[in-house]
Amino acid sequence: xxxNVRFDERGLVTAVVQHATTQQVLMVAWMNAEALRLTLETGxxxxxxxxxxxxxxxxxxxxxxxRVREIRVDCDEDTLLILVDPAGPACHxxxxxxxxxxxxx
Length: 105
Description:
With about 100 residues, the chain is mostly beta strands. The chain has a single domain (about 1-85), classed as Ubiquitin-like (UB roll) (Roll), CATH 3.10.20. Helix content is about 10%, strand content about 35%. The chain contains one helix and six strands, in the order E-E-H-E-E-E-E. It has one helix at about 35-40; strands at about 15-20, 25-30, 45-50, 55, 65-75, 80-85. The chain has a four-stranded mixed beta sheet with strand order 2-1-6-5, with helices on one face. It has a two-stranded antiparallel ribbon with strand order 3-4.
């Protein structure tokens, strides 16, 4: 699958994570080739932390893992849509989705 993904100059691709049943967007993160490989191998999401400069397995410490049902790539091959069955909240704040706040006018 990596041959169908265009990583940026930093070696990253944007990953939009969506609840497979409700279609709610849960989070947006970044993957490098290793994170994508681990995600495909384990069936659970792995990402690249730009701030920490390291791989992370979603839910490794919280237990809120995301089981992957399907991974899609957009028409430009530079963004992934990952459909998951979440075991708990996606957001580090405890919210179901990272998109729980409205932008004020």
